[in-house]
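Example record for the data management plan.
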Amino acid sequence: MNKSRPLLLLVLPILVSCGESETTLESQSQSPPPLSTPEFIVAGYMNDPAALRRGQDLFLGSCVSFCHNLIEEEPDQADALFLFDCQWTHAQDNAEIFRIIKEGVPDTRMVGFGENFPEGDNDVWKIIAYIRQSQDNCGDVSR
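Corresponding structural encoding:
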C-alpha cells in the first residue's frame, strides 16, 4: 500500500484541477452570448431578406391596417405617429420599441400586441428590423 500512496498524491492534484477547469468552462458557457442584445438581433434581421419580408407583412397587416401610415402625413391629419422618420416620441432604442409593441403606450391608441404574433418575440424583432431598414438614414440602428 505504501507504493500506491505516492501515486495517489501525484494523480489527485491533476484530477482536482481537471474538475475546476470543467466548472469554469461550464459556468462560462451559461452566460448569455453578447450577440443577444436588441441591437444585434435587429441588425441580424436587417440583413435577412426573408425576415424583412415577414416584418413588412406583419407591419402592413397589424400596424398600417389599423393606425400607422407608410407615407408621412401632416401631424393634424395623421391617425398615428409616422415611424419611418428619425423622431420618435415614446422610444429611443430597439429595446424600448420592442416593449411598446408588446405592451402598448398608456393613454394612446397604441395597444400592446403581447404574445399575439405567430412567431412570438421573433416577429416583433422582425417588425422592428423592417421599420429600421425602411427609415430615413438615422445612423445607428440602436439610436
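Summary line stored alongside the record: The chain is about 55% helix and 0% strand.
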